[in-house]
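ESCALATION

Customer reports they have been waiting on this structure for their group meeting. Please prioritize. Original submission:
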Amino acid sequence: SMISQRPDYAPAKLLSGKISLRKRQFGEAIGIFDSLIKEEPRWVEAHYLKGLSHFQKGGEPNVVKTALNKVLTLNPEHIDARLLMATLYLREKKYAMAQNECRQVIDRIPNHFEANRLLGNTYLGQKKLDAADALFTKLVTRFPDHPAGYFHLGIVKRARRDLEGARTDFEAALEREPRFVEAFSHLILTHVANNNVQAGLNRCDRQL
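Update from on-call: job pushed to the front of the queue and completed.
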């Protein structure tokens, strides 16, 4: 095979696939990763990038899962594959399965931000607000400069009708990332929910 004949062939081919993926040329990227897998069926990264390409393309979840399951069979400790699998399960509201994937990562890396963030979102999906509150509070304590922790804590507080607390957390997220569109949208919705449309309008003017 070309991989065995030329040591530089496979890395160069993988790089070209990554560039196609970055350009959102999904068909081309998938074709490259497929050709690499055909030559080297146990190449974990090629399987993962194939799954990621299908995911970003908006492909069938089962196609993505097939690629990710292959990755996790070859390397059960592949963190990105676990988190992408958790994301798929979360979208499907298969919360227990998503939690299992998150905990596979957290058991090894307790302070992994994304694994904890996804786990907190499964609690939100299950309406386990105490568990979500505790987890996101822990995240903002451990990662005080990360905007996403404050954003999700704001979502929990809005669900509890603590609108002032939610507003404070959304502002904290925007303070750390002024272009955090989702946090801004929820901040304005929180002003509206608090029957304070004028405050929402004023905040829009400040953002602009």
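Sent to customer with the following note: The two ends are 57 Å apart (CA to CA).
Escalation resolved.
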